[in-house]
Amino acid sequence: MSGAESTRLSKNAGAVQFLYKYGTLITILLLIVFFGTMTDNFLNYSNIINILRSSSIVTIIAIGLTVSLAVGGFDLSVGSTASIANALVISLFVWHGQSIGVGLLVTVLFCLVVGLVNAFLVINFKIQDMLMTLATMFVFQGIALTYTRGASISENMILPSGDFATGAIPDAFGSLGKEPWIIIIMLVIVLLVHIFLTYTKHGRYMYMIGGNAEAAKLSGIAVSKYRLTAYLISAVLAGIGGIILGARVEMAEVNAGSPYLMDAVAAAFIGYSVLGAGKPNALGTLVGAILINILSNGLVMMSVPYYAMDIVKGSVLALALAITYIRSRR
Amino acid sequence: MKGISIAFPGVQALSDVDFHTESGRAHALIGANGAGKSTLMKVLSGAYDHYTGEIEIDGKPANIRSPRDAKTYGIQIVYQEVDTALIPYLTVGENIMIEHTIHGMKGKQFVNWRSIHREAQAVLDRLKVKVPSKKLVQELTLAEKQMVLIARSVSLDCRFLVLDEPTAPLSRNETEALFELVRLLKSQGVGIIFISHRLPELYEICDDITIMRDGRLVVREELARLPQQAVVEHMLGAKLEGQFPHRTSRIGEIGFEARNVFDEGKVNGVSLSVRKGEIVGLAGLVGAGKTELCRALFGASETARSELVLGGKRLRARSPHEAARGGMALIPEERRREGIFVDESVVLNMTAASLAKYSGAGSWIKRKLERFASDQMIRELGVKTPDGNAKVRNLSGGNQQKIAIGKWLLADADVYIFDEPTKGVDVGAKRDIYNLIAELASRGKCILYASSEMPEIMGITDRIYVMYDGAILKELETARTSEEEIMLYSTGGVMS
């Protein structure tokens, strides 16, 4: 290879490297500038809060998914788990008149059971995580639907007995779904998981398992234990996402969590490309979720119909994946 | 093939190699690891297009630049990894006729199953291979899969057939069946090129031999004129002596003992012991169960059972996690797949087995400490890397292996199990690794060293267990044995 040729090549590689590292952040910046100049209200304080608020539930659920991706798994049931948590927590208040503490505790415990089921199936039957959790996704969705009898739950709803439901949703619970709390909860979760994955030995082990499970096992790492832990974290965070969703709309809609699955998957995978991480990471996932919501928000402001939104989301995901995988082939 | 040269980034793989063979003869192509045999055959079969030199067939120049080209000249190759060339959930017949289905269908849209199986069965019958055409490939043994691949080659226009280490994974009987097939093909006028590491078997079927070393042709001769000893000398070039460290062994009491190790037909009741400061060799051919035994001892096989005693205490090691905690270490055979994290940094790899030492309260990793330990190990082992942040993927095989070992040095185990630690490692790094192991022994560690390279076993160990068919057939003292004796027991022989 001649000298000139190699400098040209390394220049090209440098450009690709730069794009890989900063591409996602530059995209966000460009989008902000674009929407900021094209619309009047995009950069308003209230709209920025609006974007963060609408990112928060996706982010929380996507962070759970990110942890399952870190061990080389793939928890597709996060959307359904959020639905279950959503239905359960609201029903505990509305149907059973429970206090906020009991409501949250029971819901989180139930999510742990959900994670346990996932982990048990994936670890013991050695079936690909994505396929196994595809199956459990349906099961959990069915459980949520059956539990709510296929209907939504809200205060003063009519029960099958003909009476009105007497339980009330506590005000403190409702405030969890409003800013600033909803945004604070999101940021705290992102920060905690980021610290866990990056600075503790447990997180290090999880990435090792995700990178090469066999080598991790032969390095004396308790692989099954960490895979179990990852699925428990994933289910609990999905559950928290569902709870916050309930707090935000103060009711449980039918299958409320399911639509969040695809956004969460997109956010987590866009996250791979943030700052050239090349692997699932909490901060990247946050950026991914915000990117998606900036897009939705800006496009709505520019009067693009909501039903066309998926086209844009899908395209952004495809782009992020392309950048990640082109580099990993080098 | 005349004046073939090929280079890869950083390596001159072949330099000016001449090679020729004839129809109806079996030609042995041999050389030590990395001599360039496989590369030469890949050139012949069109796997590379950036070589220089000429290929002639029947005296006419043949321009082979792609696998397709090679096939039109009737050159077929059966690689060692048979599973990469077969589709497991299709039948034998479909696998044999796969090229016909892809290239021979012309305008037809529907597959004629009856004719596929009929033709496949005809090929199998011609080769006297007793595998039914309608059986699924995933139900076959390794040897049968090889036969299927040979049958596929023969079903096409096959004038020269390259077999790349076909006998390595086969049992004695399976090898015999394969040779029967090779003789049959020879008699049908096919030229066979046979790559193998097992010298004795070459004399059974090959007529000519070409020996390569360091990417060059060393000698081409009629095999009958070249005794085995001479072949070995040509292969090795300079004598290997001086490679192994001189050790004054101070061997202590028994430090590690394993009794009744079983693993579902792969390991059948092995008992062994290693003294402190002793290097014990596990000899045996590929497939004798050495790797399986190593994994069983380390708890890496879920179906294995064993009773272990380490430092006088019972050790429960039903998982590598428990084994490592109990003070055992395994440097596995398949380095890239089992030993290292290729996409991670040197530091991360180095501390993978001992991270607990470098993390404090709340499992927080102390990065400086970790960094320091890793840098120290990099210096001690002479790992050639720009720094600790470099990805292990970009290092050479020898350096990767040093890291796979360094990981366990930091963990400071009592028992070290090495499974083919010098496989695919260059000569310089090999010497470093031998020294390292000798150094470990001198510190009173128990060392189990599995290898199918006899000179290695002879050079570094104090005592040898020879494995055959999943069991220990013989225990030998290194100072009072010879490569020949080890080979004899490795092939299941008994002293009369």
TrEMBL record, chain A:
Domain of life of the native organism: Bacteria
KW RNA-binding (keyword) present: no
Record's subcellular location: Cell membrane
Keywords: Cell inner membrane, Cell membrane, Membrane, Transmembrane, Transmembrane helix, Transport
InterPro entries documented for this protein: ABC_BtuC-like, ABC_transp_permease
Membrane spanning residue stretches: 18-39, 51-71, 102-123, 130-147, 181-199, 228-247, 259-275, 282-300, 306-326
Molecular function GO terms recorded: transmembrane transporter activity
Gene Ontology CC: plasma membrane
Principal subcellular localization: membrane
Protein's membrane topology: Multi-pass membrane protein
Protein's name according to its UniProt entry: ABC transporter permease
Source species taxonomy: Bacteria, Bacillati, Bacillota, Bacilli, Bacillales
From TrEMBL, chain B:
Domain of life: Bacteria
GO terms for MF: ATP binding; ATP hydrolysis activity
PROSITE patterns (UniProt xref): ABC_TRANSPORTER_1, ABC_TRANSPORTER_2
Keyword Repeat (UniProt): yes
Keyword annotations: ATP-binding, Cell membrane, Membrane, Nucleotide-binding, Repeat, Sugar transport, Translocase, Transport
Annotated ranges, domain ABC transporter: 1-239, 249-494
PANTHER family, per database record: CARBOHYDRATE TRANSPORT ATP-BINDING PROTEIN MG119-RELATED (PTHR43790), D-ALLOSE IMPORT ATP-BINDING PROTEIN ALSA-RELATED (PTHR43790:SF3)
Protein name in UniProt: Sugar ABC transporter ATP-binding protein
Organism: Paenibacillus soyae
